[in-house]
What does this fold into?
Amino acid sequence: MSPTIQKRSEKAWASPGKLVYVGEQQKEAVEIAAFHYTETACHETALKTADECRALQREPGITWINIEGLHDTVLMEQIGIQFGLHPLIIEDILNTDQRPKLDDMGDYISVVLKMLDYDEDSGGIVTEQVSLILGDNFLISFQEGRQGDLFDPVRERIRSGKGKIRKMGPDYLAYALIDGIVDNYFAITEKISEKIEEIEEKLLSDPSNETIHAIHHLKLAILHLKKYIWPMREIINALAKGESPLIMESTLIYLRDVYDHIIHAIDTIETTRDMISGMLDIYLSSVSNRMNQVMKVLTVIATIFIPLTFIAGVYGMNFKYMPELDWPWGYPMVMGFMAVAAGVMLLLFKRKNWM
Amino acid sequence: MSPTIQKRSEKAWASPGKLVYVGEQQKEAVEIAAFHYTETACHETALKTADECRALQREPGITWINIEGLHDTVLMEQIGIQFGLHPLIIEDILNTDQRPKLDDMGDYISVVLKMLDYDEDSGGIVTEQVSLILGDNFLISFQEGRQGDLFDPVRERIRSGKGKIRKMGPDYLAYALIDGIVDNYFAITEKISEKIEEIEEKLLSDPSNETIHAIHHLKLAILHLKKYIWPMREIINALAKGESPLIMESTLIYLRDVYDHIIHAIDTIETTRDMISGMLDIYLSSVSNRMNQVMKVLTVIATIFIPLTFIAGVYGMNFKYMPELDWPWGYPMVMGFMAVAAGVMLLLFKRKNWM
Amino acid sequence: MSPTIQKRSEKAWASPGKLVYVGEQQKEAVEIAAFHYTETACHETALKTADECRALQREPGITWINIEGLHDTVLMEQIGIQFGLHPLIIEDILNTDQRPKLDDMGDYISVVLKMLDYDEDSGGIVTEQVSLILGDNFLISFQEGRQGDLFDPVRERIRSGKGKIRKMGPDYLAYALIDGIVDNYFAITEKISEKIEEIEEKLLSDPSNETIHAIHHLKLAILHLKKYIWPMREIINALAKGESPLIMESTLIYLRDVYDHIIHAIDTIETTRDMISGMLDIYLSSVSNRMNQVMKVLTVIATIFIPLTFIAGVYGMNFKYMPELDWPWGYPMVMGFMAVAAGVMLLLFKRKNWM
Amino acid sequence: MSPTIQKRSEKAWASPGKLVYVGEQQKEAVEIAAFHYTETACHETALKTADECRALQREPGITWINIEGLHDTVLMEQIGIQFGLHPLIIEDILNTDQRPKLDDMGDYISVVLKMLDYDEDSGGIVTEQVSLILGDNFLISFQEGRQGDLFDPVRERIRSGKGKIRKMGPDYLAYALIDGIVDNYFAITEKISEKIEEIEEKLLSDPSNETIHAIHHLKLAILHLKKYIWPMREIINALAKGESPLIMESTLIYLRDVYDHIIHAIDTIETTRDMISGMLDIYLSSVSNRMNQVMKVLTVIATIFIPLTFIAGVYGMNFKYMPELDWPWGYPMVMGFMAVAAGVMLLLFKRKNWM
Amino acid sequence: MSPTIQKRSEKAWASPGKLVYVGEQQKEAVEIAAFHYTETACHETALKTADECRALQREPGITWINIEGLHDTVLMEQIGIQFGLHPLIIEDILNTDQRPKLDDMGDYISVVLKMLDYDEDSGGIVTEQVSLILGDNFLISFQEGRQGDLFDPVRERIRSGKGKIRKMGPDYLAYALIDGIVDNYFAITEKISEKIEEIEEKLLSDPSNETIHAIHHLKLAILHLKKYIWPMREIINALAKGESPLIMESTLIYLRDVYDHIIHAIDTIETTRDMISGMLDIYLSSVSNRMNQVMKVLTVIATIFIPLTFIAGVYGMNFKYMPELDWPWGYPMVMGFMAVAAGVMLLLFKRKNWM
It folds into this structure.
């Protein structure tokens, strides 16, 4: 039994709200990086405790707290208490074997997302869970820390003060993070498309048993992508409906844009899936075809030489009374007959298009 | 005709509400274990009759009556009468060949669930029906008793008084039981995932006729899982909508959490299903491939040696006038020619990539 | 052209409402059996004409008229006129090549159902159309009479006065009949399940061409089941919604129960369908496998003996100058070489796992 | 490029409302047959111009104008102007490469339908577009004229005055025409069912390459049927909802009846489709099976005789020192050994069930 | 990594609203062609800057600005500012790797469409993005410029003043452009249908490995068509609902007509898809069939001649004591026996229908 199964089994009958981090520890220490900004100013700090986070958020302006590393369950619980989060929310953040989900709790919105990557070596999908807690003047983001800190480009935009990001609320900041995660999906679908082209070329030139396994691995990758991206659609749709007062009207058009991107990604994945199943058909039919070719060669050779060998066998018999053996022209006649028979056979095979 | 079919056939035209236990008797005697608790106190008793159950429930506090073993139809009828349950509800509890279902009867809610297990030896899904009757201050749970008593962890939590379980109503208790049952599904999907990995390795190393049967059994297991888990989705969704006054607002978020788990389980099953059908494709294509290999060996051998044998046959003929036979270099020349012919053949096969 | 096609073609442009019985006549004479009952009393009569039916229905109490045999279109028309039924309703009752359907006409509800049976010999589904007309104080049921009278168990319950049947209205009586018909579907699915197990065993032990035809017939049976049972779902759902005043509130829970049964039957059929398509996969792969086996035997034999035969052929040539032929150890050396070559081949095949 | 493609390509950027008849001209001259009837009287006339049509419609009573042949675009435009039809409606009537559609324009309803036929020789579906314009006191029907006039049975009913047709409005007349067209679909599904039975028999007795093409043609026919009949469902459903004041309440039950027929036809087509795909599976598996048989024969023969031939070859070698050759019992012993070897082989094959 | 992937990856975390043209530059300079028309007058001009566009639009009458070439992001930004377009709208226009979409921004409607073409040589679908901005008195259309200017037929209609186009608003103009684009889809489906017929003929006469690749390419083309055309359905449906005041009531019927065309195109594509998958089945079964044929020839030849060769081999043995060899009739008897054996074999094969 793998350790993950054991963890899950132990969780099965545990009291709900009991905090267990299901994934592997990725970092030695949890890192808390805080941004505090208004339209005019912005300063960054590294925090240590939940109390410090809470204190920062109480000051006027927008606070973004990014937590990297999820294994410190005590800290997580403290943050939950400080920001008044429901225990189930914290449980969801820690349970990285979690489906993407959205919980609108009135005071705050919790979003659990999946940052995905396609590992070209193993051909598998690598996931990292990213959770966001959106309040009226703050955003807390949680990362597992597997792929390093992914939000640097957004940080740059805040620091530089360019664009709308400092002029708008934490909902726009949440949008910026989600948009980055979703746009990343296209990089994956494009990597997969390149892989497909590669395999298709091999299918044409030299289909082997490895090709079928490469196709199978692609299929699995697509299955996993689908599993993670499909739920994103509902989540972003729910956000874009604008039913929560935490999301301002001016942000909705941006969320709708992300929604269109998700739909586009889903479309692409569906098309890719159909392409892969088409490749399987080609593979099977070209294997059949090659078997056919092999069989034809065998049949042509056997059909020509087996009868001839029989004739040679006949005149190899040791009967005393075989008049042909004594004819002076016996040998050339037999040889000539054999040549004619072989020629007729070859002609027949040509007509049947077997050669 | 199997005995189950006979039972069902007899039931077909029977008066509705007539009580028949469809399953096999699992225990010698029905066991009734009752919990009676308030936020501060908790005591357990073993009861015998329906009257005792009813008496206990009338006292202030929350009553949880757990009934293990369903074969005593008289007792079941008495419980139905004492708690004012509709005869059809009791019928559903006894009919273990039942789809998971929910009946909101106003005064009480009846839920029929399936506790599932994956039997790794037979590769099949084992089911046990668990039914819950949720009233305003009581919960009655019914188990078949096949897998022993499953609710011990919940009992522990009540006894210890830790967590929220004693502070909340019978609806939270019902949630706790349902949550345990649903979380258990993940253990099954993970066992199946392990099985799939095992089979995939065999597919790569040595696909045999047993592999295909293992795949087929997995497929059947997935089919049965699906059959039992899909209806759970509707049931828990209906509970989580909070339309019944028997379910308090504070419990709803927990039920929504279970709902997310069910959806996650369903997603996983769907993915697993697609993986299994992919394995079938691999199996078939690797069988084809191996046949191809066998055919190539046969063809190479036959194509090289059949013509050579023919030549040997020609010079084995007994014609009197075969001048080559008398040439001193006849034998080495023929042997040389054969060697050249075989070499050319081998070269052709190398090019065709058949060797 | 079959007679049924001719009948349908004639009907195509016929005036709507023109009465034609599409099926075959099953009985010599139509039998009309009437029940008239109140909570306290119950008497049965055999009627002859539509007028008698109408007279009986006018008396206080509940009237159940059961008509067996549909070929007497004049009688049918009379009944339509006496009970004020729309001509299309009567047409539907007579058209046994009819999809199950429900028509709520305000004053009365018309339900057309299918009584099904699985003929284990032919492997096909046998259907009998059962139609019900539910009024405020009467129920008329129509049977084709193919399978004999099916409603005896319900009659017994009316006669004995046990259960709720005499206490409730004609809607409950309609429910009792529908429930019997639907419960019968499970008998079919169970017979099919047994058949599947039988075929699966054959698949494992000795798959033959008959197996594939058995699978195909099962598939057809499932297709027909589906065709008849799917529409039942909508019909019973519509009844269970309780929008008609003809159906009393207390009957609704019973109808919802039947609805659950239908859903259960549909689930089972879906699962069965997937199982059957899985059996097909197994069949095809085991045929491939056996072909593989056959090919391997051929290849092993041919690959060992064809080269040896060639060597024997070489030393059977009649060249004058073949020094080996004169060596005293020539024969044993050649035989030894052959033995070694064969041994090496066998070893190679063992390694390739072909033997 | 086929002429139809050219016509369509020209249409692509043409001004909407420009009238082009896409189909082939079927008749030399357009025939306009008018019926004018009330409950008591009915007279028929043959008209020539759109003005005459309009004049007839203005008189009290119900007017049915049937136009056979669509190539005269000037006449069509005139009719559009006289009856106040939108240019797009006329365009749709002329565009016979049109999906069945319904337009409720307030003053009138336009319905475009497909009369279908199954051509048993070519195995294809033949279509003829029938369009209806339903006004408050008139109905105009348009036919391509391919299959002759199809509405004669309805005309007979009007002439004879039997049934309800003269007592009701033009909506009932429209229903009568639609009902005839829809009922005709069953004739097609039944012809296809007969074809399927025919092919199934062949599948059992002697599956050949023609069988697979027959299956493929059936599949295509079903695809085309589906394409034309599916949209009919929405159309008739929209009509049967009774949202237009042009359709009287008493006609609605008849339209609902047609709707049920369409659903039935769709069900049948779906079932047929599944049956056909089942036949394909059988075909493929029986081809595999026969290949298996052929391979077994080859293997049995080769496995028995190749080793024997080798032994004969050995004793045909010309070595000087082969002691066996001089044994008096050498020949019978070798022959005996061969017989035993062949016998053992045969026994093995019997056991493996290859013979 | 291809340049497109790089572009997308750079975009992934970029600030939303940052303008990047994803496609390839098609033209040297952007061309802006403006139409300004009322019911009575119409004049055309070529513009250079966004200011000129805006100035023209401010004059009374309807302005249509067509922009060909999207690489000049500065100009695009200026146009966005002049006409008050949201930055995301401009971003969508430039992102040609975009799903067809509709944004109703209140003041204006933005529609992104795909002009498609089927490249018969490569067998692929060529796309060009066309975007429309519909305001209350203006329409701006954006083309990539890949396929030359496509809107000439519409320009002709404006210049000539025929038809309704000058009498109606910019919404009708937008409709005219969309209608042209959609009608073009039928040209594609018809080209594909011709291709299918071509391939089907080949399937019947001479199925080769190229056939399977042609089928695969068709399948991919259909997949891409589907990807682009499916979203069009929602877009045009949304337009045809008439919820925007920018679209006049009289235009709605035209939009509904386009909607019907899209549905028709989708139906056709679905049917085509099913036809292609049917062709694959035929291909596979005819490959199997031909393999069967080849095997039969091999088996017949081998089964006849291998035993005969064995017999010849027997009488080629050099045993001293083989009495048959000395019989005067030995040779003819053996030859006769061989002829009989071969004849019997041939008869058997005839019966088995293998010849």
